[in-house]
């Protein structure tokens, strides 16, 4: 089975010149947690997720002990949180999006897509063909298509 056989072709996406406000509105409207960011030629230039939003608005101190990472939540005032959220809405999507989006080719094997989703610990991956966004595949898509014939 190939990526294009299981991908969702109707991709909710952000343009690279959009604001974070418009991205969050799309997250809420479409009940999604991430989307590719594209340029005017529909080429993938980044990926933004709810995790990027959380990292920006959350207040924490990073502590690394050996190889273990701890995020310690700091006590902060509510006004500072509201200020961060208001400021975030005004930023451009590329200010916080991942610039090197992981993506798969239109003709990638589904087992390779599953490996990427699992090893990279991501929820979804954009699908490209000839450098242009053509779809998106989530973990759920892989599970549905991999197991529907044997369950």
Structural class: alpha/beta
Q: In CATH's first tier, which class applies?
A: Alpha Beta
Mean pLDDT: 88
- Specify the CATH architecture: Roll
Tag the structure with descriptive keywords.
three-stranded mixed sheet, alpha/beta, 8 strands, 151 residues, 39% helix, CBS-domain
Structural description of this entry:
It is globular and about 55 Å long. The model is unreliable at 60-65 and 69-75 (pLDDT under 50). It is 39% helix and 26% strand. It has a single domain (3-147), classed as CBS-domain, CATH 3.10.580. It is of the alpha/beta class and 151 residues long. Strand 2 (34-38) and strand 3 (44-49) form a beta hairpin.
Helix and strand arrangement:
Layout: H1 3-6, E1 14-15, H2 20-30, E2 34-38, E3 44-49, H3 50-57, E4 60-65, E5 68-73, H4 78-90, H5 93-96, E6 104-105, H6 110-119, E7 124-129, E8 132-138, H7 139-147
Parallel strand pairs: 1-2, 6-7
Antiparallel strand pairs: 2-3, 4-5, 7-8
